[in-house]
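To: structure desk
From: M.T.
Subject: fold request, one chain
Message: Could you run this one when you get a chance? Sequence is below, nothing fancy, just the single chain.
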Amino acid sequence: MTGVGNACLVPNSFALLARAFPPFSVNKNIAFAFLGFSASAGYIFGGVIGAGFADKVTWRWGFWFWAIGSLFHGVATLVVIPHSIGSPIPGLSLRQLDYIGTLFGVAGFTLFAFAWNQASVVGWEEPYTYFLVIIGIIFMILFAYSQSKVPAPILPNTLSTRKGFTPVVTAMAFGWMSFGIFLYYPTVFILTVRLESPLATVAKMVPEALGDLFATASVGIFIMKVLAQYIFGVSMFSFFIGNLLMSFANHSDVYWAFIFPACLLVVGRPDLSFASSGILISNTVLPEEQGVA
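Reply: Done. C-alpha coordinates follow.
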Protein backbone atom coordinates (compact mmCIF):
# COMPACT_ATOMS: atom_id res chain seq x y z
CA MET A 1 0.00 0.00 0.00
CA THR A 2 2.91 2.34 0.62
CA GLY A 3 4.06 1.73 -2.94
CA VAL A 4 0.59 2.55 -4.24
CA GLY A 5 0.56 5.78 -2.26
CA ASN A 6 3.98 6.80 -3.51
CA ALA A 7 3.07 5.91 -7.09
CA CYS A 8 0.05 8.22 -6.82
CA LEU A 9 1.83 10.99 -4.93
CA VAL A 10 4.95 11.60 -7.04
CA PRO A 11 3.53 11.86 -10.58
CA ASN A 12 0.51 13.87 -9.43
CA SER A 13 2.73 16.25 -7.46
CA PHE A 14 4.90 16.67 -10.53
CA ALA A 15 1.87 17.29 -12.76
CA LEU A 16 0.28 19.77 -10.34
CA LEU A 17 3.46 21.84 -10.11
CA ALA A 18 4.01 21.67 -13.86
CA ARG A 19 0.51 23.03 -14.50
CA ALA A 20 0.54 25.56 -11.66
CA PHE A 21 3.45 27.57 -13.09
CA PRO A 22 4.06 28.86 -16.62
CA PRO A 23 6.74 27.11 -18.71
CA PHE A 24 10.35 28.32 -18.32
CA SER A 25 9.48 30.31 -15.15
CA VAL A 26 11.88 30.62 -12.21
CA ASN A 27 9.17 29.76 -9.69
CA LYS A 28 8.40 26.54 -11.52
CA ASN A 29 12.05 25.48 -11.39
CA ILE A 30 12.31 26.31 -7.69
CA ALA A 31 9.11 24.34 -7.02
CA PHE A 32 10.59 21.27 -8.73
CA ALA A 33 13.77 21.69 -6.67
CA PHE A 34 11.79 21.75 -3.42
CA LEU A 35 9.94 18.63 -4.57
CA GLY A 36 13.30 16.89 -4.92
CA PHE A 37 14.47 18.31 -1.58
CA SER A 38 11.49 16.67 0.14
CA ALA A 39 13.02 13.23 -0.55
CA SER A 40 16.18 13.69 1.53
CA ALA A 41 14.59 16.08 4.04
CA GLY A 42 11.70 13.68 4.56
CA TYR A 43 14.10 10.80 5.07
CA ILE A 44 16.03 12.69 7.76
CA PHE A 45 12.99 14.18 9.50
CA GLY A 46 11.16 10.86 9.42
CA GLY A 47 14.26 9.16 10.76
CA VAL A 48 14.45 11.59 13.67
CA ILE A 49 10.82 10.93 14.63
CA GLY A 50 11.14 7.17 14.24
CA ALA A 51 14.47 6.97 16.07
CA GLY A 52 13.13 9.12 18.91
CA PHE A 53 10.14 6.86 19.40
CA ALA A 54 12.33 3.74 19.13
CA ASP A 55 14.72 5.03 21.81
CA LYS A 56 12.16 6.45 24.22
CA VAL A 57 8.89 4.54 23.71
CA THR A 58 8.56 1.84 21.04
CA TRP A 59 9.41 1.64 17.36
CA ARG A 60 5.73 1.01 16.61
CA TRP A 61 4.93 4.61 17.46
CA GLY A 62 7.00 5.69 14.45
CA PHE A 63 4.49 3.97 12.18
CA TRP A 64 1.47 5.10 14.18
CA PHE A 65 2.66 8.71 14.13
CA TRP A 66 3.15 8.83 10.37
CA ALA A 67 -0.07 6.91 9.73
CA ILE A 68 -1.95 9.64 11.63
CA GLY A 69 0.07 12.34 9.87
CA SER A 70 -0.60 10.86 6.44
CA LEU A 71 -4.33 10.68 7.19
CA PHE A 72 -4.33 14.32 8.27
CA HIS A 73 -2.46 15.48 5.16
CA GLY A 74 -4.66 13.35 2.91
CA VAL A 75 -7.77 15.07 4.25
CA ALA A 76 -6.07 18.49 4.13
CA THR A 77 -5.30 18.11 0.42
CA LEU A 78 -9.05 18.06 -0.31
CA VAL A 79 -9.23 21.60 1.08
CA VAL A 80 -5.82 23.11 0.33
CA ILE A 81 -5.09 21.89 -3.22
CA PRO A 82 -7.27 23.54 -5.89
CA HIS A 83 -9.56 21.16 -7.73
CA SER A 84 -8.62 22.73 -11.05
CA ILE A 85 -5.17 24.04 -12.00
CA GLY A 86 -4.26 25.54 -15.33
CA SER A 87 -6.31 25.28 -18.47
CA PRO A 88 -8.78 22.38 -18.74
CA ILE A 89 -7.53 19.19 -20.39
CA PRO A 90 -10.21 17.81 -22.71
CA GLY A 91 -11.06 14.16 -23.11
CA LEU A 92 -9.98 12.82 -19.71
CA SER A 93 -12.55 10.80 -17.74
CA LEU A 94 -12.94 7.55 -15.83
CA ARG A 95 -14.60 6.03 -18.88
CA GLN A 96 -11.37 6.47 -20.81
CA LEU A 97 -9.18 5.00 -18.07
CA ASP A 98 -6.96 2.23 -19.38
CA TYR A 99 -8.30 -0.58 -17.21
CA ILE A 100 -6.58 -3.28 -19.29
CA GLY A 101 -3.20 -1.60 -19.01
CA THR A 102 -3.76 -0.97 -15.29
CA LEU A 103 -4.49 -4.67 -14.71
CA PHE A 104 -1.51 -5.94 -16.68
CA GLY A 105 0.86 -3.28 -15.35
CA VAL A 106 -0.02 -3.59 -11.66
CA ALA A 107 -0.13 -7.39 -11.78
CA GLY A 108 3.13 -7.68 -13.69
CA PHE A 109 5.21 -5.35 -11.57
CA THR A 110 3.71 -6.61 -8.31
CA LEU A 111 4.39 -10.26 -9.09
CA PHE A 112 7.89 -9.53 -10.32
CA ALA A 113 8.79 -7.38 -7.29
CA PHE A 114 7.36 -9.91 -4.82
CA ALA A 115 9.13 -12.90 -6.39
CA TRP A 116 12.45 -11.06 -6.74
CA ASN A 117 12.45 -10.04 -3.07
CA GLN A 118 11.06 -13.34 -1.82
CA ALA A 119 13.83 -15.23 -3.60
CA SER A 120 16.40 -13.61 -1.29
CA VAL A 121 14.52 -15.12 1.67
CA VAL A 122 13.56 -18.62 0.50
CA GLY A 123 15.99 -19.04 -2.40
CA TRP A 124 15.45 -19.63 -6.10
CA GLU A 125 15.09 -23.37 -5.50
CA GLU A 126 11.48 -22.72 -4.50
CA PRO A 127 9.46 -23.23 -7.72
CA TYR A 128 6.95 -20.45 -7.04
CA THR A 129 9.65 -17.75 -7.03
CA TYR A 130 10.80 -18.15 -10.62
CA PHE A 131 7.26 -19.10 -11.69
CA LEU A 132 5.98 -15.73 -10.42
CA VAL A 133 8.89 -13.94 -12.09
CA ILE A 134 7.95 -15.52 -15.44
CA ILE A 135 4.26 -14.66 -14.98
CA GLY A 136 5.20 -11.11 -13.99
CA ILE A 137 7.35 -10.67 -17.10
CA ILE A 138 4.52 -12.00 -19.29
CA PHE A 139 2.11 -9.48 -17.76
CA MET A 140 4.61 -6.66 -18.32
CA ILE A 141 4.98 -7.66 -21.98
CA LEU A 142 1.19 -7.68 -22.32
CA PHE A 143 1.11 -4.24 -20.67
CA ALA A 144 3.61 -2.85 -23.18
CA TYR A 145 1.66 -4.37 -26.06
CA SER A 146 -1.68 -3.04 -24.82
CA GLN A 147 -0.38 0.52 -24.71
CA SER A 148 -0.33 0.62 -28.51
CA LYS A 149 -3.87 -0.75 -28.81
CA VAL A 150 -6.03 1.16 -26.32
CA PRO A 151 -7.35 4.68 -27.10
CA ALA A 152 -6.10 6.32 -23.87
CA PRO A 153 -3.02 4.41 -22.67
CA ILE A 154 -1.46 4.90 -19.24
CA LEU A 155 2.00 5.07 -20.76
CA PRO A 156 1.61 6.42 -24.29
CA ASN A 157 4.14 5.13 -26.80
CA THR A 158 4.34 8.67 -28.16
CA LEU A 159 6.35 9.71 -25.09
CA SER A 160 9.43 7.97 -26.47
CA THR A 161 9.21 10.18 -29.56
CA ARG A 162 9.50 13.38 -27.54
CA LYS A 163 12.93 14.94 -27.93
CA GLY A 164 15.21 13.98 -25.03
CA PHE A 165 12.56 12.06 -23.12
CA THR A 166 14.12 8.58 -23.25
CA PRO A 167 17.71 9.51 -22.22
CA VAL A 168 16.50 11.78 -19.40
CA VAL A 169 14.13 9.18 -17.97
CA THR A 170 16.78 6.45 -18.27
CA ALA A 171 19.35 8.57 -16.44
CA MET A 172 16.80 9.51 -13.78
CA ALA A 173 15.90 5.85 -13.25
CA PHE A 174 19.50 4.80 -12.66
CA GLY A 175 20.27 7.93 -10.65
CA TRP A 176 17.35 7.57 -8.29
CA MET A 177 17.99 3.85 -7.90
CA SER A 178 21.44 4.76 -6.66
CA PHE A 179 19.84 7.40 -4.42
CA GLY A 180 17.72 4.71 -2.78
CA ILE A 181 20.82 2.59 -2.28
CA PHE A 182 22.63 5.55 -0.73
CA LEU A 183 19.82 6.28 1.71
CA TYR A 184 19.42 2.67 2.81
CA TYR A 185 22.87 1.09 2.98
CA PRO A 186 24.81 3.87 4.77
CA THR A 187 22.06 3.83 7.39
CA VAL A 188 22.40 0.06 7.80
CA PHE A 189 26.20 0.39 7.77
CA ILE A 190 26.19 2.94 10.60
CA LEU A 191 23.68 0.93 12.63
CA THR A 192 25.12 -2.56 12.23
CA VAL A 193 28.83 -2.03 11.57
CA ARG A 194 29.50 1.15 13.54
CA LEU A 195 26.94 0.01 16.16
CA GLU A 196 25.52 3.52 16.58
CA SER A 197 22.15 4.25 18.16
CA PRO A 198 19.22 5.14 15.86
CA LEU A 199 19.37 8.84 16.82
CA ALA A 200 23.15 8.99 16.31
CA THR A 201 22.70 7.32 12.91
CA VAL A 202 20.19 9.95 11.80
CA ALA A 203 22.48 12.71 13.08
CA LYS A 204 25.32 11.44 10.90
CA MET A 205 23.05 11.59 7.84
CA VAL A 206 21.95 15.19 8.52
CA PRO A 207 24.67 16.75 6.27
CA GLU A 208 22.79 15.36 3.28
CA ALA A 209 19.68 17.38 4.11
CA LEU A 210 21.76 20.50 4.80
CA GLY A 211 23.57 20.13 1.50
CA ASP A 212 20.31 19.53 -0.34
CA LEU A 213 18.88 22.69 1.21
CA PHE A 214 21.83 24.65 -0.17
CA ALA A 215 21.32 23.09 -3.60
CA THR A 216 17.62 23.95 -3.51
CA ALA A 217 18.39 27.56 -2.64
CA SER A 218 20.90 27.78 -5.49
CA VAL A 219 18.37 26.63 -8.08
CA GLY A 220 16.81 30.06 -8.32
CA ILE A 221 20.23 31.55 -9.08
CA PHE A 222 21.62 29.09 -11.60
CA ILE A 223 18.62 27.48 -13.27
CA MET A 224 17.98 30.47 -15.57
CA LYS A 225 21.67 31.13 -16.28
CA VAL A 226 22.90 27.61 -16.99
CA LEU A 227 21.44 25.16 -19.48
CA ALA A 228 19.26 22.50 -17.87
CA GLN A 229 21.33 19.80 -19.58
CA TYR A 230 24.44 20.90 -17.66
CA ILE A 231 22.59 21.04 -14.34
CA PHE A 232 21.18 17.59 -15.00
CA GLY A 233 24.72 16.35 -15.69
CA VAL A 234 25.92 17.79 -12.37
CA SER A 235 23.12 16.00 -10.54
CA MET A 236 24.04 12.67 -12.15
CA PHE A 237 27.70 13.24 -11.26
CA SER A 238 26.62 13.85 -7.66
CA PHE A 239 24.90 10.45 -7.65
CA PHE A 240 28.20 8.95 -8.77
CA ILE A 241 30.34 10.78 -6.19
CA GLY A 242 28.13 9.92 -3.23
CA ASN A 243 28.04 6.20 -3.95
CA LEU A 244 31.72 6.09 -4.86
CA LEU A 245 32.77 7.63 -1.54
CA MET A 246 30.55 5.29 0.45
CA SER A 247 32.07 2.30 -1.33
CA PHE A 248 35.39 3.15 0.39
CA ALA A 249 33.90 3.42 3.90
CA ASN A 250 35.50 0.88 6.25
CA HIS A 251 35.11 -0.43 9.78
CA SER A 252 37.05 2.43 11.36
CA ASP A 253 35.36 5.12 13.44
CA VAL A 254 36.51 7.96 11.16
CA TYR A 255 33.18 9.52 10.20
CA TRP A 256 34.71 12.54 8.46
CA ALA A 257 36.72 10.52 5.93
CA PHE A 258 33.96 9.08 3.76
CA ILE A 259 30.44 9.23 5.24
CA PHE A 260 30.41 12.98 5.91
CA PRO A 261 31.72 14.07 2.47
CA ALA A 262 29.52 11.47 0.76
CA CYS A 263 26.42 12.93 2.43
CA LEU A 264 27.52 16.51 1.82
CA LEU A 265 28.68 16.20 -1.77
CA VAL A 266 25.50 14.60 -3.03
CA VAL A 267 23.74 17.95 -2.65
CA GLY A 268 22.80 18.09 -6.32
CA ARG A 269 21.16 14.70 -6.57
CA PRO A 270 17.44 15.02 -5.82
CA ASP A 271 17.06 18.78 -6.03
CA LEU A 272 18.90 19.56 -9.24
CA SER A 273 17.77 16.38 -10.98
CA PHE A 274 14.10 17.15 -10.31
CA ALA A 275 14.43 20.79 -11.34
CA SER A 276 16.46 20.16 -14.49
CA SER A 277 14.53 17.07 -15.61
CA GLY A 278 11.31 18.96 -14.98
CA ILE A 279 12.47 21.62 -17.42
CA LEU A 280 13.66 19.10 -19.98
CA ILE A 281 10.51 16.97 -19.85
CA SER A 282 7.55 19.15 -18.90
CA ASN A 283 8.37 21.74 -21.57
CA THR A 284 8.38 19.14 -24.34
CA VAL A 285 5.41 16.87 -23.55
CA LEU A 286 1.71 17.64 -23.81
CA PRO A 287 -0.13 18.90 -20.69
CA GLU A 288 -2.03 15.62 -20.25
CA GLU A 289 1.25 13.68 -20.47
CA GLN A 290 3.13 15.58 -17.74
CA GLY A 291 2.04 13.37 -14.83
CA VAL A 292 2.95 10.20 -16.72
CA ALA A 293 6.26 11.69 -17.88
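Reply (cont.): The chain has a mean pLDDT of 78. Let me know if you need anything else for the meeting.
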